[in-house]
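Sequence in, structure out.
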Amino acid sequence: MRRLVSATGMIAAAVALSAGLAPAAHAAPRQDATTEAPKAPPKPTAVQIAGKFDGDKIIIQQAERPELFQRVLSEVNWLSGAAPTTTKPKADKLGPKYTVTVFVKDKATQLYDLYPMASGGPRAYRPAKQPGGGKKAAGWFYGRLTMSESLRVSGVPLKEKPDVVSGGIGGGIGKDVEQGELDPMAVGSDVLSQMRGLLLINGAVLLVVLIGLGSAAYLIRRRV
């Protein structure tokens, strides 16, 4: 009788174990091998330059003039996610304005104002209101030193600067800018603003450290 009870118990345990494992196997999530990767954002297909010159605007299609298209696009494509690098110059120091609009097919996606002849070096402005209802933080930037040449070879009537062959993002003041064109007050203001922000950050970190040390000393003193 004892053997029969023992055997019955072992069989019941085995059935319960198999019943417990079976649902888990069926409940395992099914992996979909056909999951699609996220699509890359559409690439620009044209740029438009607008300003006060004959015709009022110039449109450069990537399919027709790829090298020129890429050259003009490189003057503005970095502005989309960049942080402003300068304050607004005085109006009489900016020179002529040229608005560059970036298109994806027939839809405008980005818009920037370029000032290639600004005193102290080229400037660029990113309006807060962007085409298609998009919004960005408005801001001023030091432009690339190649800005005037890129616009000139596109058809904008600007004075040739053959000595300017390259310029990084936010090129700022270069050797092609005459000493009399420099604006020391604007540059000094930018430097002081950046130093002020750095000092505030360092002061906040120091204050947090001092509060932490004071709290630790207080707790140790109470326990002692």
